Amino acid sequence: MKVVLLADVQGRGKKGELVNVSDGYARNFLFPRKLAKEANAQAMSELKNAEQARLHKIEVEKAAAQEAADKINGKTLKLSAKAGQGGRLFGSITAKEISEELKKSYGLQVDKRKIELSSDIKSFGTFECEVKLYTGISAKIFVMVSEQA
Fold it and tell me: Please, what is the average pLDDT of the chain?
């Protein structure tokens, strides 16, 4: 019997897959536990529509990430920090601060874990960092650190 899985079933397949199982297994285990439904025309069209919706969502997210990358690629963020002796900072500039500045300056919500710094920013100057917006889509930005007035 062909069934469409409604949840991951160990040893059978993942959610949304079309699998072939024995009649008894489907009737006595999968159907009562709402783990699968029979692969009739309606279920197949729902499966196809769900797959198309998922692909469309990925396409929209990719387009938005590419637009954001084009918007910020090569731009310079200006941050200021308190200074110690010899041009060194108290503490450091973190990915969290860069993320907050991106949100404030460009209205772009970026998770701090998606910002890659080559090393900790502990002095004044201009530093390059990479912002990963989506799989395969990233932008290089510059962070200019100046002394706080």
Answer: 91
Quick one: which of 133, 141, 120 has its CA closest to 78?
141
- In this prediction the pTM is 0.71
CB-based burial label for 106 (10 Å; 0-12, 13-18, 19+)? middle
**Both tokens assigned to 90:** 């108290």
Q: State how far the alpha carbon of 35 is from the alpha carbons of 10, 20, 30, 140, 145, in Å.
A: 11, 14, 5, 45, 55
Confidence at 20, pLDDT banded by 50, 70, 90: very high
Of 125, 132, 138, the residue nearest 76 (C-alpha):
125
- List the structure tokens of 79: 């941050």
